[in-house]
Amino acid sequence: MKSAVEPLKARRIYLLLRDRIVAGELPAGTRLPGEPALAAEHAVSRVTVRRALDLLEKEGLVQRKAGSGTFVHDTRAVRPIVADLSNVLSHLIDMGRSTDVKLLSFGYGVPSDQIAESLGLKPGERVQRSVRVRLIDGEPFSYLTTHVPEWIGLTYSEAELAAHPLLELIERSGVTTERATQAINATLAGPEAATALDLEIGSPLLTLTRIVYEPSGRGVEHLHALYRPDRYSFHMDLVRTGNDGERRWSPALGWPRGTDKTKAEKSKPDKNKLGEKPTRTARAIKQRS
After folding, report:
1. Which helix (H) or strand (E) holds 151?
2. How far apart are CA 213 and CA 218, in angstroms?
3. Is the pTM higher than 0.85?
């Protein structure tokens, strides 16, 4: 029983220290108490404290110096990607060019019923499936599994996918991407994703499922993405819209941050002429400046 409890205690200490570091309570350069002091403070063994510090070090939050102790590392060294939910598609290509990618698998086959249905495929129609890891400043932040109809996948090679953003290759094939639907949730890292993202199995992840459509309504890409929450976050600008008594928060579509809200609201249509919800497409903001 004790062997099963100790890892849980180590993770609890790791999370407590991590929260204090991320919140700025323990700024960069701060020397953490020694293992004996932390063990006494949390009523655990030094082995448990060492496991917690190992997790912090693996995440890049602390740095151990022989003979000196454990110090809070400058967490700005790896800056997160911030994705704007109100403009998801327009700058995905730019994101691809500001980050690196590692292609883990590339092949063709019949997809699951769920993916086939979401893309509007015919029975037995094949797809090109790939698994990639994206890195920012050399550190992995996303684990991407994509399915593309075979007739599109045949227009690019494995080498091209390893060197170019998928959306760029899809549009190069002559396809026009018009809109996308997406869902965001939380999940835990399985063995493959944990290894690829340099995490422990069971670590929390953000998950996004996006389906991209061409004007005819056919699906041209199904993306299932897993993100490290410490290296990737989602952002949305909101504005107040509607008449008095029916005011509500709406996505700030079509204008950048800092735009005069009154002018923006006047330029925003009252409702979508097609009776559909506004499409929320993707913008990744490069965080290197």
Report:
1. helix 150-153
2. 5
3. no
Q: So what's the architecture of 81-235 in CATH?
A: 3-Layer(aba) Sandwich (3.40)
pLDDT per position as a tens digit, 94-140: 555 467 899 999 999 999 999 999 999 999 999 999 999 998 878 89
Distance between CA atoms of 78 and 207, rounded to whole angstroms? 21
Residue ranges per structural domain of the chain: 2-77, 81-235
2-77 and 81-235, same CATH topology: no
- Check residue 203 and give left, alpha or beta (phi > 0: left; psi -120 to 50: alpha): beta
The amino acid at 25: E
Domain 2-77 has CATH 1.10.3720.10: no
- What is the distance between the alpha carbons of residues 88 and 181, in angstroms, rounded to a whole number? 10
Q: What is the DSSP string of 205-239?
A: EEEEEEEEE-TTS-EEEEEEEEE-TTTEEEE--EE
Q: What is the mean pLDDT of the chain?
A: 80
